[in-house]
């Protein structure tokens, strides 16, 4: 459903701080894939999500989503098909607006702009039903200003907002990294539930190896802009930290002698 072919991306070309992040990198994502992406700092994980979302353009290569070439499509058009959640809970929601207003805004995403959504209460039960899935009591807080919510509640709300319009693709960039360990576990469970319930196709960057092993049907490890490990199906289901480490060792040994 998503295919990146021979993508090249260099930051600051021709300057002293030039950095080639992708050099003919390719990735094929199948419909319904829930891919956990791991890799060291600077591997290109965020850049990958940024070029898929359209936040960053590419120098060469092609990006195809559901048979449509989106390589040159601007971010504001792509965002109707692709939802994205970042690490910082402040970015996924609008803090000065209420839970209800945030949900209304997400629900109306891509529709004709109309201020009436800010006061409309007709979606009240629909929103409550969605919030109940979280089991955080947010359904009783529709009138609460989002800045009063905890980080975990905000990321969970952002997830509900992302899934409201049933995006074709959900991009998560270390969306639990700023949360305390316990909340991070809760938000991961919620993430998994939403992705499964809606059969979403998702790419999730995480620093948490346990999460990458536990969740998703596929694990991709990135290193210097390349996908050096890509396991799915049975192999992914039976993956352990030890197996992942030995896979990594195999790849490192091979690249050392090639
Ligand atoms: N907007 C940018 N301008 C210049 N360099 C960037 C930009 N975004 C990322 N980079 C560089 O590209 C490399 C990959 O970054 P990034 O994709 O953020 O890595 P990761 O998310 O895997 O830690 C890093 O060396 C980073 O410094
Ligand atoms: Mg990153």
Q: Care to describe what's here?
A:
The chain has 258 residues and is α/β, with parallel strands linked by helices. It has a single domain (2-257), classed as P-loop containing nucleotide triphosphate hydrolases (Rossmann fold, 3-Layer(aba) Sandwich), CATH 3.40.50. The chain is 36% helix and 24% strand. The chain is built from ten helices and ten strands. The protein has helices at 45-53, 75-78, 89-92, 99-107, 124-132, 151-164, 181-197, 209-214, 233-237, 241-257, and strands at 2-11, 19-29, 34-39, 60-65, 68-69, 82-85, 169-173, 202-205, 218-223, 226-232. Strands 6-7-8-3-9-10 form a six-stranded mixed beta sheet, sandwiched between helices. A hairpin with a 2-residue loop joins strand 4 and strand 5. Helix 4 packs parallel to helix 6 (151-164) and helix 6 (151-164) packs parallel to helix 7. The longest helix is centred in the last third of the chain and has 17 residues, at 181-197. The protein binds adenosine-5'-diphosphate and magnesium ion.
């Amino acid at each position: 459903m998503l295919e990146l072919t021979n993508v090249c991306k260099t930051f600051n070309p021709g300057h002293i701080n030039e950095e080639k992040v992708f050099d003919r990198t390719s990735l094929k994502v199948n419909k319904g894939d829930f891919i956990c992406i791991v890799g060291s700092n600077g591997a290109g994980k965020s850049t990958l999500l940024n070029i898929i979302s359209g936040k960053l353009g590419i120098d060469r290569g092609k990006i195809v989503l559901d048979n449509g070439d989106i390589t040159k499509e601007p971010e504001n058009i792509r965002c109707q098909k692709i939802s994205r959640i970042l690490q910082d809970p402040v970015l996924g929601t609008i803090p000065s607006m209420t839970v209800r207003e945030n949900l209304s805004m997400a629900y109306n995403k891509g529709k004709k702009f109309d201020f009436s959504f800010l006061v409309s209460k007709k979606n009240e039960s629909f929103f409550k039903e969605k919030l109940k899935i979280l089991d955080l009591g947010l359904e009783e807080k529709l009138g609460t200003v989002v800045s009063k919510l905890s980080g975990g509640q905000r990321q969970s709300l952002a997830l509900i907002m992302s899934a409201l319009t049933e995006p074709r693709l959900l991009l998560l960039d270390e969306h639990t990294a700023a949360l305390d360990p316990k909340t991070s576990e809760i938000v991961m469970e919620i993430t998994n539930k939403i992705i499964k319930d809606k059969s979403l196709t998702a790419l999730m960057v995480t620093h948490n190896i346990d999460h990458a092993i536990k969740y998703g049907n596929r694990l991709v490890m990135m290193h210097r802009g390349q996908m050096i490990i890509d396991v799915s199906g049975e192999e992914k289901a039976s993956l352990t930290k030890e197996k992942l480490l030995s896979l990594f060792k195999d790849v490192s040994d091979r690249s050392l002698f090639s």
